[in-house]
Amino acid sequence: MEYTQKNLANIQTSFSKDLKDLSHEQLKEKYLGKKGLVTEALKEIVNVSAKEKPMYGKEVNTLKAFVEEKLSEKVQQDREYTSKPKIDPTAPFDINEKPHLYNQMLSLKGSKHPLTKEMEKILRIFSSMGFDILESRQIDDDYHMFQSLNFPKGHPARDMYDTFRTEDGLVLPAHTSTMQNRALKKFGPPPIAVVLPGRCFRNEATDAGHEHTFHQIEGIYVDKNVSLSNMIATIKTFLERYLETDLKVKIQPAYFPFTEPDCEFVIGCPFCNMTGCSTCGHSGWIEIMGCGMIHPNVLKEAAIDSQMYSGFAWGFGVDRLAMIKLGIEDIRHLRESNLNFLQQF
Ligand SMILES: [Zn+2]
User: Fold this and answer.
1) What is the CA radius of gyration of the chain?
2) Strands 213-223 and 249-253, how do they pair?
3) Ranges of CATH 3.30.930.10 domains, the chain
4) What is the pLDDT of residues 109-163, one digit of tens each?
5) CATH no. for 114-342
6) What is the model's pLDDT at position 311?
7) Segment 47-82, tens digit of pLDDT
8) What are the distances in angstroms from CA 23 to CA 15, 36, 296, 320?
9) Per DSSP, what are the bridge partners of residue 28?
10) What is the 3-state secondary structure (H, E, C) of 208-246?
11) Which of 125, 264, 306, 323 could form an S-S bond across to 254 if both were Cys, CB 3.0 to 4.6 Å?
């Protein structure tokens, strides 16, 4: 009896261990099958003395009940495991929590950011007008940011361009004019027609109309006998093609060290026919970009004869122009990666 009781204890121990390692089928075979350990222990009762039979019978039946119960629990657990949705460890946790959201995400296709799409449209227009394209740098030096553009050291107008600097004196461009000197040298001698798209940075508080990071497209055109009227016609043609409407335009005075004269290009608001709306601040006019004739010092700095050649330049914010066209009221939406916003374009 001692031997058989010890045997029952051993069966229970080995079953508890196998429970983790073996499948339900293997366990059933090993313990409850025709030659299973529990089945064999049940048969053993014939060899137990009459006096000990009730006790042994009770114990072996308890063991059998224990094994059956654990096996049925295991079947239940396996079923729960396989019916759970598979977890995607790279997905945001709420997607794993909500399978319907996950399916929704799977049906989405990626697309270009609205700013990228608008940038491409704008560059296609300038390209069709005969302009080359040269992308600006995202980190530059004081010479290209200021000195080559007729802002000598200590020039008060430097304060109008508050941007970020690295510890070793490099500058994050506050305008894509940083490329003017390079473009004049690269594409010269004139005629030169090139647009300079790129990312710009300003060290300022953000609000609905201002971001620390934005995009500009600078343009320069240099040749013999270039005049302000060429500039007005070029910018007007571009804006009418981009905004897909005829425009009333005017220029008004401004100040930039790298142009002479310096102008602000203003369009009659195409959204309210100049009667006043929120886009034009109820004035009927929208100031759209800075522009002017390239300062002779800027041409000279790039070794271009300013007696023989003249040129014009402009610079506008792509974010702002795209906002006007698409009716976006807050520039910060363009950098928030909010799918509800982005899917509208
Ligand atoms: Zn308006």
Assistant:
1) 39
2) unpaired
3) 114-342
4) 778 899 999 999 999 999 999 999 999 999 999 999 999 999 988 888 888 888 8
5) 3.30.930.10
6) 97
7) 888 888 888 889 999 999 999 999 998 888 877 766
8) 12, 15, 86, 65
9) none
10) CCECCEEEEEEEEEEECCCCHHHHHHHHHHHHHHHHCCC
11) 264
Ligand 1 centroid to residue 208 C-alpha, Å: 18
pLDDT value for 339: 83
Environment class of residue 172 by beta-carbon count within 10 Å: exposed (0-12), middle (13-18) or buried (19+)? buried
Give the separation between CA 342 and CA 345, rounded to whole angstroms. Answer: 6
Long-range contact set of residues 284-287: C-beta below 8 Å, sequence gap at least 24: 285/250, 286/324, 287/252
Q: Calculate how far, in angstroms, residue 235's C-alpha sits from the geometric centre of ligand 1.
A: 20
Ligand 1 midpoint to CA 337 (Å): 29
The DSSP bridge partners found for residue 317 are 216
Q: DSSP readout, 51-94?
A: TTHHHHHHHHHHHHHHHHHHHHHHHHHHHHHHHSPPP-TTS-HH
Token look-up 């006007």 returns 324
Ligand 1 centre distance from Cα of residue 281 (Å): 7
Token digits of residue 317 = 């914010």
Run of H or E residues at 294 = strand 285-294
Instruction: Classify residue 201 by its DSSP letter.
Output: E
Q: Which helix (H) or strand (E) holds 3?
A: helix 2-21
- How far lies 269's CA from each of 75, 250, 275, in Å? 72, 12, 8
Ligand 1 midpoint to CA 23 (Å): 74
* Cα 268 to averaged position of ligand 1 atoms, centre (Å): 8
